[in-house]
Design brief:
heterotrimer; A alpha/beta (about 240); B mainly alpha (about 290); C mainly alpha (about 325); B: about 290 residues; mainly alpha; ABC transporter involved in vitamin B12 uptake, BtuC; 11 helices; 2 strands; about 5% strand; C: about 325 residues; two-stranded antiparallel ribbon; globular
Chain lengths: ~240, ~290, ~325
């Protein structure tokens, strides 16, 4: 469904991605792993339409996303939960979720979808009228995910959802992601918490210094010696 | 005592217009980080619009709002498409700098055009009821100015409601908070900019209309009103329309107090001095994010 | 500066200096005086806005302070050059006040702070010094336009030399780095605040001197007129039309502007502002390099049209 072909991207003179290729098939959860600064967020920004790749292509549903404006990419069925959540400081939980259904295709059925989101995240229903800055980190992450879900995506992309959250919350959020996937949404998950991501994911890719250096099923990657040494062992990078 | 009260009341009455003037500027800057220093000239044009409608067709200035506001909306859209829309492709600092320059040139051109077309003379709309005054406990409230204050408040209240309950109003607020996140939420940020700019210009036009009936207009009020709006925005901060209105009232009252203490000619200076003091004393920067 | 350019420059300056000795017509001298003073004023704005990238919308404040202080001191008996230096120092003092406060913040603070400052001066001076300032009869009797002319020439040369020196110095390169991207410049160790303040000092000192020269030249004026936004407009327009951030830009812009302004003013009073305002906006949007950029492109077009194998390639733009 989503094909990223040899994408190169740079910020000014700095080459952040030097040829990344990956794929997300229908119904999959794909993990994108790698150290800080590897280019994971850069790749997400390219898919989201916020950054134009200087080489390579991104195709979704067979059509190129090359010159599609970011807000139209949402209309095509891709929703992004950005790194650091990027919530709207002056808005309440309900306003966020309502805005999530802003795109024309998401307008119909939004009442129903709101109910679904509240079912997935009951705590948000309780706090629907509160300003998001009054919420805890985990709750804010739920708002961010909920906002993306309101756009009725077929592909949900999450950039480091576990960042700054306690392990128990991370567990519950990743559990929710599993549930969302079972309801038919494909997921591309960028994570530094390699362990948790690989348990959840069907397949994964390793991105280092702007290039994909490894791929495989979740299980296979967990057994991969390089992955073990760099990301899972005692000397592994911790976030 | 009554004299003091009278001055304060007059200060409040004009303060409402300061708030309205600032609201438009604040909305535009908050959403797109564009500082239109020709905002005052737009107010001036709104005033002349109402003036000529009255002079040529006898249309009551308050009724003229129904004409001025839509025209200003369209005018704002045109200014966005033709001028300010081009700077949004830059990042914030360059955007601010270029918008300052464009606004500067625009203001200059509009001012010169107004002088050419209508001469530098002061104008004012004098309706049949212009002289009416409401007497409340020894303080006289000019009816026209009172009505202007009420209308200013209604317009700002309306804006507040729009921003909170209209789909695009919320989109505008989201864009102001974080435009990339807004894009990722499916909001067409350029359209949000356009709408914000049009509404901001409409508010300027409305403010100008109210100024032309309760006070007076001339081509040179542009710079004066731009500065008033800027002072209020700095005082009140960005983000709350009602807060901006309150900031306007505060400026009006501050000017009245200063006029009583230092004398009439220094009325204008106090606002500017407050502005500079805030600049020096509150370094966390109300403009910078 | 390349030897050929330096030699050409000296010849031009010498020629200009000789003008009052050869030409007796006052209107020509007045016109040239205006051009020279405008060049200096435009260059002064160019330093802070074109090189350091900080838009100053209240340049009139510093011009006015220089003019006012010079006028007061000179009429009281101080030699005019001392008065001008004093005026420049006062201008710099106020500039540092605003700059120190505003430069630590980003965005529009500096632009609007200077605008507010110039308006404060205009209104306050208009109220406290409302009477027209006229030179005493004795001074008018011994008034020599040539002196004013040479002073303006000196200022124009000073301004151009200062910008030329700055542009190629380490300071200047640092300023231009700030202009392009302040964050990136800061990351490479550039002290943005210090450089902005230095640029501000140069800019406002020059503006103050220009004001002082104006005070020396003009027989009578209303003091508040010294702080009129028109001076800011002139500086900004001239610099941009000519080419902001270049050495030659303000010179070209000043000549172009003064010439057309005088020409248009004969027919319509303020109409020139409408045309120039529109032209300015067009330049900001479409041709930020102004006349300098336009000329470069034209030269490129002509050279490629008339290309012959042994023709030398066009020289790179002197920025």
């Amino acid at each position: 469904m989503l094909h990223v072909d040899n994408v190169e991207a740079s910020y000014g003179p700095f080459l952040a991605l030097s040829g990344a290729t990956l794929e997300v098939r229908v119904g999959e959860i794909v993990a994108l792993l790698g150290p800080n600064g590897a280019g994971k967020t850069t790749l997400i920004r390219c898919i989201a339409g916020l950054l134009r790749p200087r080489a390579g292509g991104i195709r979704w549903d067979g059509a190129s996303l090359a010159n599609v404006a970011a807000h139209r990419i949402v209309e095509r069925g891709i929703a992004v939960v950005p790194e650091g959540r990027r919530l709207f400081a002056t808005m309440t939980v309900e306003e966020h979720l309502d805005l999530g259904a802003f795109a024309p295709h998401a307008h119909a059925g939004r009442v129903q979808r709101l109910e679904e989101v509240y079912t997935i995240f009951p705590v948000l229903r309780e706090r629907r009228g509160q300003l998001v800055r009054a919420l805890s980190g985990g709750q804010q992450q739920m708002v961010a995910i909920g906002r993306a879900l309101m756009a009725a995506p077929r592909l949900l992309i999450l950039d480091e959802p576990s960042l700054g959250l306690a392990p128990r919350i991370v567990e519950s959020i990743l559990g929710v992601l599993g549930e969302i996937n079972r309801r038919g949404v494909s997921i591309l998950l960028v994570e530094q918490n390699v362990q948790a991501a690989l348990v959840l994911a069907h397949r994964g890719y390793i991105l280092e210094s702007g290039r994909i250096v490894g791929e495989g099923t979740g299980a296979a990657l967990m057994d991969d010696p390089h992955v073990k040494r760099a990301y899972l062992g005692p000397l592994a990078l911790r976030h | 005592m009554t004299i003091v009260l009278q001055q304060l009341v007059l200060g409040v009455l004009i303060g409402g217009l300061y708030g309205l003037a600032a609201a438009g500027l604040s909305l535009i800057f908050g959403v797109m980080k564009v500082l239109n220093v020709a905002h005052g000239e737009l107010i001036m044009l709104g005033g002349y619009g109402a003036f000529w409608l009255f002079a040529l067709s006898g249309l009551d200035p308050f009724a003229a709002l129904v004409v001025v506001i839509p025209v200003a909306l369209v005018g704002g859209a045109i200014l966005y498409w033709g001028l300010f829309g081009w700077v949004v492709r830059y990042h914030e600092e360059t955007r601010i700098k270029n918008s300052l320059l464009i606004g500067f040139g625009l203001g200059l051109a509009l001012h010169a055009a107004a002088v050419q077309l209508w001469t530098a003379d002061e104008r004012s709309i004098t309706t049949a009821y212009a002289g009416s005054v409401l007497d409340v406990g020894g303080v006289s409230l000019p009816v026209v100015r009172l009505a202007s204050l009420v209308i200013a408040f209604v317009l700002i209240g309306g804006l507040h409601l729009l921003l909170n309950h209209w789909r695009w109003g919320r989109a505008i607020r989201a864009t102001a908070d974080d435009w990339e996140a807004a894009l990722m939420t499916g909001i067409d940020v350029r359209r949000a900019y356009l709408i914000a700019f049009a509404i901001g210009t409409a508010l300027a036009g409305a403010a100008g209309t109210l100024v032309s009936v309760g006070y007076s207009i001339s081509p040179s009020i542009g710079l004066e009103w731009t500065l008033k709006a800027l002072i209020v925005v700095v005082l009140a901060g960005l983000g709350s329309m009602l807060g901006t209105f309150a900031g306007g009232l505060i400026l009006g009252v501050a000017e009245a107090c200063s006029a009583m203490v230092f004398g009439g000619p220094y009325r204008e200076v106090v606002g500017l001095v407050i502005f500079l003091v805030v600049l020096v004393a509150r370094p966390q920067g109300l403009f910078a994010k | 500066m390349r030897p050929a350019s330096a030699a050409a420059g000296l010849v031009i300056v010498a020629a200009l200096a000789a003008v009052p000795l050869v030409v007796r017509r006052e209107d020509i001298l007045n016109f040239l005086f205006l051009v020279l003073l405008s060049i200096a004023l435009a260059q002064s704005w160019n330093v802070i806005a074109g090189y350091a990238g900080q838009v100053n919308l209240g340049h009139a404040a510093f011009f006015g302070l220089g003019a006012l202080v010079t006028r007061v001191l000179w009429i009281a008996g101080t030699p005019v050059v001392i008065g001008m230096i004093a005026g420049a120092l006062v201008a710099v003092a106020f500039a540092l006040l605003i700059g120190w406060a505003a430069f630590r913040l980003r965005g529009a603070y500096f632009a609007i702070g200077t605008l507010a400052l110039s308006e404060i001066f205009r209104i306050t001076v208009g109220n406290t010094l409302a009477e027209i300032s006229t030179l005493p009869q004795t001074t008018i009797a011994t008034y020599r336009l040539a002196n004013r002319y040479w002073l303006a020439l000196a200022l124009a040369v000073l301004a151009i030399a200062a910008v030329a020196a700055l542009a190629r110095s380490r300071l200047g390169l640092g300023m231009q780095a700030i202009r392009e991207d302040e964050d990136a410049a800061g990351a490479t160790g550039v002290d943005a605040l210090r450089l902005k303040l230095i640029a501000l000092v140069c800019s406002t000192a020059l503006a103050g001197l220009v004001g002082g020269c104006f005070a020396y030249y003009h027989i009578s004026f209303y003091p508040s007129h010294l702080f009129s936004p028109g001076w800011t407009f002139d500086a900004v327009l001239m610099t941009f039309i000519g080419g902001v951030g270049t050495l030659h830009g303000p010179v070209l812009g000043a000549i172009f502007y003064v010439f057309f302004k005088e020409y248009l003013a004969i027919r319509w009073v303020d109409f020139h502002l409408l045309i120039f305002g529109a032209l300015f906006v067009a330049i900001v949007l479409l041709l930020p390099g102004g006349l300098v950029e336009a000329m470069g492109k034209l030269r490129g077009l002509l050279e490629s049209a008339a290309f012959t194998p042994d023709r030398r390639r066009p020289r790179p733009e002197h920025r």
